[in-house]
Write a structure and sequence with these properties.
Blueprint: E1 2-6, H1 17-26, E2 31-34, H2 42-52, E3 55-60, H3 80-97, E4 101-103, H4 114-134, E5 137-140, H5 156-166, E6 171-176, H6 177-183, H7 187-194, E7 198-203, H8 220-229, E8 235-238, H9 252-256
Parallel strand pairs: 1-2, 1-8, 2-3, 3-4, 4-5, 5-6, 6-7, 7-8
Length: about 260
Amino acid sequence: MKFCANLSFMFAEAASILERYALAKEAGFKAVESGFPFGFSVEQVKQAKENAGVEQIAINIKTGDTTKGEVGVTSVPGKEQEFRDNLAITIDYAKALKAPKIHIMAGKVETRTPQHWETFEKNIKYAADVLKQENILGLIEPINQYSMPNYFLSDYGRAVDIIKRINSPHMKLMLDIFHLQQIKGDITHSITQLAPYLGHVQIAQVPNRNEPDTAGEINYKFVLEHLANSGYDDWVGLEYKALGSKTKDGLGWIQAYGYSL
């Protein structure tokens, strides 16, 4: 099992995402993932990543004004060009960082209509075709409604159906066990059923999104073993908030569960 640090959630003790690259390396991580690095140029982020000497595994698509709760426009009719522009910008960052995966966030809508689903699938199909040319993997991720009310994609069945119809090796499912538990539970069987479509996995304890070994609903020692037994051998992103003041102090669970960085 390979773990990468999510710089959007971990190392919050740092002032900026640029400083978090160095803290991830100092903590022993060989790889990281992140949201879109708003406010920093391609060159600034690339330099921080290279100075730290870590791999970048994934990056989120440029989503709009996050202070206003904007999390993408992939499902929003009439904003297809904005989606394509955001994808192009994100690809520039991904290529500079040598990141092989891009998480394509769906956006928020108050009422899902057939037009929203049609727009979402059309944009995901477009992304798959573009990412094929760049040899980058696109990811779509169901997100639970408690953490992000009105997020468009909160259904694993619909996500898999879209992936099947697009039928591209460059569009797969991102499975965050944190969201899976709160959307439908049934983690063991869900992992088994979703395994053929997985392109990336993330973890955090439920409900407080802290370290996997903190108090909560999920037995992550069992879940990680089941994930490996189901054939998943790619990176697992640690998308959690440290319970303590320093992220590094809460990493003991990795060794306790029989893994290493």
